[in-house]
Amino acid sequence: MLSRLIRSRRPWLAQVGITSGSMAAALVVTHVFWRFFQYTPFVPGFAAVFLSSRFGGRQAGFLAVFIGVVGYTLVPLALPPEGFIRFLIGFVVVSGSFGWLVARRYEIEADLRASQEHLKAVISSLPIVLWGIGRDGRVTFAEGNGLDVLELKPRELVGRSVFELYDGVPDIIANTRRVLAGETFTAAVTLGEVAVETWHSPLRDDQGAITGAIGVSLDISARRAAEQVVIRSERRLQTIIDAEPACVKVVSLEGRLLEINRAGLAMLAAQDASQVVGRHVTDIVHPDDRSRYLEMHRAASAGTPRRWEFRIIALDGRERWVDSHIVPFDTAINGGESQRVVLGVTSDITERKQLEQQLQGAQHMEAVGRLAGGVAHDFNNLLTAISGFTELVLLTLDETDSRRADLREVQKAAERAEVLTRQLLAFSRRQVLLPKVLNLNTLVGEIEKLLFRTIGEDIELVLALDPKLQHVRADRNQLEQVLINLAVNARDAMPAGGQLRFATETVDVDQASMQWLARMPPGRYVRLTVSDTGIGMSDEVRLHVFEPFFTTKDIDKGTGLGLATVYGIVKQSGGFIWVSSEIGRGTAFEIYLPAVHDPAEPLVRAELSPPLPGGSETLLLAEDDTAVRRLACTSLRQYGYTVLEARDGADALQIARSDRQRDIHLLVTDVVMPGLSGRELAMQLVTERPEMRVLYTSGYAEPMEQGLERNVPLLAKPFLPQDLIQQVRKILDDPAPAATAAHVIAPS
Prior knowledge:
By secondary structure, this protein is an alpha+beta fold. It has 6 domains: 2-121, no CATH class; 126-225, 2-Layer Sandwich (Beta-Lactamase), CATH 3.30.450; 244-348, PAS domain (Beta-Lactamase, 2-Layer Sandwich); 354-427, Helix Hairpins; 435-596, Histidine kinase-like ATPase, C-terminal domain (Heat Shock Protein 90, 2-Layer Sandwich); 618-741, Rossmann fold, CATH 3.40.50. It is built from 25 helices and 22 strands. Helix 13 packs antiparallel against helix 14 (403-427) and helix 14 (403-427) packs across helix 20 (562-572). The longest helix is centred in the middle third of the chain and has 47 residues, at 350-396. The protein is rod-shaped.
């Protein structure tokens, strides 16, 4: 110990805890008392120790005891040695003990004062108000920098009752009563423009009785303003999300729906969020798409955004196609802790899918139509030869010849095949049409009796015809075929009877309607709706209903060409047809034909012209099919015509140019031939021989597709010999100039 004191650079008295101040105080007090009160040696020493301890602390008290002992030793007292020693011991023990106690109290008081001052300084520097009230509600203290915000001073509050100070603020009065009733809580009130949040806690004595309360008040005006900004931002964001036409949803990693906007509720046919929130999303996903959905959801949960299309089943049972884009992100749900969720933006693409199906169906029908038209063209050539040569053979046989019956059967078979060919041509939109302006109401009324006979007595026929219906331009016979075919289809769909309804209406199709009616130009249309209450059809059947030879009937109940014929006639007439159906609830066909303002033409059926005599003119026949060419040549020569036979267009051109002095009165040419087409052949020959007339033949009986005018002379295949003879004679006897009889459209 002594060595440490010697080696230390600090004064040794300071190292043992004696300060210069305490030592000076002890010397002064001891000297004074020793100098003037020697006659009472114990009292001055004790007093010196007491005062030194009170004002100088333990160090000063102990130093006073030491000085007293030294003083008593240097200035002997009139005491015996034993008494003197007892006196010193008693002095040291009594004065030292009492001095220590006095010094300790002094130190405690000093520490307490220092702590109070420090706490007061801390509280004064904080933006809070620390306050206390008594049992009667009077303020006992109030400290803190927060008083400056309220423009208050502690002296303005201490001693005054809260019930008087804030009589006009019911919230503060109520909160004071609550805390004095023993409740600990936090509440916020507004004082003018200042928002204050206060923690309240009651004070209790040892027996638990409430003696008052304390509280800590904090100015939360800035925080509340920030909260209001956040609230307004959230409301604005929620408004934007609710206005979003797509479904915006939040899904947990487990796949449960946490939040969804209004568009999502509408998509799911939910009246309230409680109907869907909390449910597993796979509950509304189509069963066939659930495994794929879960795979995509797991990928998004792992951090990889995903987008794909799938089907859902709404609460009302409807199936819808949706396009969903999902991404992972971290957020707090309902004010809780932040967690990883999956955000999804889902759009209803049911209409787009329907349009895609319609487009694919139209493309498919177009391809099938081209195939059917090609087959019908080749088949027409065969039927022309079969029917024509059969007719020629019949002309050579006597009425009593037994072979005539066999040939008649061949003719009947050819006629049935011709009907099928016409249906294929109707589907492929390549049949001959004689369009006229007509009123659909009149047409429906004229065939009403025929419809009654077609559908039977157990089916009710209802006509809902618009009396102000506009006219259309179409082939009357073909539209009759459309009505009959649709009636037959409806009859077969109602084996137990039902209702068949024909309705007409003039409608305007705008841009909005085009979203439902794919590829249909806007404008005014006449709509014919044929609906039944039959068994209906599935979506799979509906997609194929217009395909040729597609049928759900028994093998002996139909050819599968009825609705295909309807489709072809409507399309060739410039119209559109749509079908809607539901199992058990019937089917409806809607036909849209462009409306026209021209007056209706009389509905008179064309009568066949009587047979015409032959002639002696020279004809140039260009036909690439050998059988048809032989039939035509034979028939024409039998009626006296001179026929120059050519196997194709190039051969016909060579024959015509080989003898320019020979007159050729009529060119009979097939429209479609390899190499030089009939149109190109006619253009060249008419230029060289202006007096020559032209008759076209074709298995494709729509002249516009071959670059010909609609009213050009055209003989459709298959044809009988007399049909060819009549048409040839009619053209040769036409008084119109020969150059206009060709009706060839010049190339652009």
